[in-house]
Amino acid sequence: MAKKSMLQRELKRQKLVKKYIQKRIYFLTLIKKSNSFEEKIRYHNLLQKLPRNSSKIRLRNRCWKTGRPRGYFRFFGLCRNILREYAHNCLLPGVIKSSW
Hints:
Layout: H1 4-33, H2 37-48, E1 72-73, E2 78-79, H3 80-88
Antiparallel strand pairs: 1-2
């Protein structure tokens, strides 16, 4: 289980991303559409004034059950340990143990 502070920090980042996504998109389109270099620099400075944690790239995929950030399977939203446990208990429909 991940520390509660790490999970709360990740939730805070998710809220900031939702809050500032429209502003980020707006500034990025202005940067792309601007013709002069000075305009691009000005819009880029406006983009940099937004909080760092409002960038989508800073989000980390975490297991919804344990909060573990490593060994994450996107399709299930689980880490490898819990995925294995759930598969053995037949809690994931369609997942079977491979044998050859």
